[in-house]
Amino acid sequence: MICRFAGVSSNLTSGCIKNIKGTNIAYVKPHILSVNGNDYLLFEECDDVFINGYFKSIKLKDLERYLKKTK
Known about the structure:
Elements: H1 2-6, E1 11-13, E2 16-19, E3 26-29, E4 31-35, E5 38-42, E6 48-51, E7 56-59, H2 63-69
Antiparallel strand pairs: 1-4, 2-3, 4-5, 5-6, 6-7
């Protein structure tokens, strides 16, 4: 819905949880929103959106403004 308000086309890939058998280790794969060659990593119940990796992040509430700015 945010992409529609920002006027950009997008592709959303759903994330999941991967468990490693025989251990108590789990990997959380984030939802990935692809817009104009950039990947935005979204985690359930997290207020931050990571941009093209885990080094740069913005708040979810600022995503629409960020997408309009980078359009």
